[in-house]
## 1
Amino acid sequence: MSNSIQLTTGMRNTLLSLQQTNDLLNQTSERLATGKKVNSALDNALSYFTATSHTSRASDLSQLKDAMGEAIQTIKAADAGIEGIIDLIETMKGIAKDAYSATSTEATDLAAQYNAMASQISDLAEDASYGGMNLLGSDTLTVVFNEAGDNTMSVTGFDGSATGLGIATGAFGSSGAIGSAIAELDSALATLRTKSQTLSANLSIITARQDFTTNMINALTIGADNLTAADTNEEGANMLMLQTRQSLGTTSLSLASQAAQSVLQLF
């Protein structure tokens, strides 16, 4: 003899409909809460895994983009160092030219100023580092452009110190010595301007790759959203419809139970 309660066909169908409505309500609530129509592989395996792949690649590119930003700042730091050194060298040229018409004592003082500024060139080059990388200290900066790590660019630094630029200790004892010092300064200026142009070209390349990476990240993110994002207006309408259906189902279940209870009125 069975102890289970037997439901009428109408009650069982109504109960089944209510269960289905509750499942849809839960699904719609999740979509509204997350803003996504695909929240797991169970919702749509192809869209879920494709969107996950897009999102993962966008995340990898985002990290590379950050590294490109740091590389740009490293180059800008080096370029700022070059500009500072150029200013010092131009001042040194003025000091050396003044030595042509100076007395012996004045020439000695000017040579001291000249050498002090040469020392500042070396100090400035040493301080032009950014994030532990100093392109004026002969470091080489490697920039990675893609997640596979096979598209890269190297920015080769140089020795930006006075010695590295070929600026010797100044001694203004003769016109020839002064002329040699000025020639060294002109050569150093030419070197610095060439290096600055090279850094500017490298900066343009990295900036272009950074902009491209930004566009790629946006394309991947939008692609992932198109595959998984929910239409909140549509889901909101679904929610209202399901709540109405749930209310009607509850009422229908109540009516079905009343039909069964009417049997009691016979006793």
## 2
Amino acid sequence: MSFNTLKLLQKQKTNILEIWMKNQLSDEGLREDLISNEDLREQSGELVAALITNLSNDDLEDMDGDSWNSVIEILGGIAITRARQGFSPRETGRFVFSLKEAILEVLQNGITDPQQLFLESMKINRVMDNLSVVTFETFIKGREEVILRQTDEITEISTPVIRVWDGILALPIIGTLDSSRTQIVMENLLQEIVETGSSIAILDISGVPAVDSLVAQHLIKTVSATRLMGAECIISGIRPEIAQTVVHLGIDLSNIITKASLASALAHAFKILRLEVKKAGSINKTNNF
């Protein structure tokens, strides 16, 4: 980039920021619910200052060079923050492209020679296009981190181990049971058995949409691990269609106690523990005899 152009951009740095802010604030899609005007101005000002300083580098296209680290670091931080705040890729892209429009507007007003204006505009286009690619790459990484974190949280929430009675645990499973989730179910259940000293665990699969051979294998592994801990495991929530599927697939669950509902599984657990639950009226009636 020529010395005169650099001098023009540095002199018009404040003007570039104001044009850029005007463009962003006039955008009907501006998400004022996600970022305040003060924070937007602070982000924009920091990026403009770093970018104008870096335009003096000889190589304007090599974004992997150390000279661009400061700009990429600022832009990457903005992209990650926007991904976590809930901005869409389109909204983040408009943020960068509107800066290019502001710089090109300043060049058009400050350079009178058409040939020089064309050459300098092309350089700015290449720089901003490369920075846009960096922005999208970083934004996608940030969004993937958000999705992975939410997936872990949902998985953790969807596999609660409930202490339904002294010595009896229940683990209602909702959704598809895959290998990774089976591992979490198994770890949570075994840890709770150790902490509570429970001897019976009920796996309720009423919320599992379908049972195939793979899901059955996961359940059998969980039951086997529970038994190694000295506890008996009951699988409840066996609906008629699931029972037919298990029989059709030839899956052997004969060594596992299965029940149609959580209530019947709990009743069977009481029977194993030799517990008898009666209505208060029944007890009084018994005492009257």
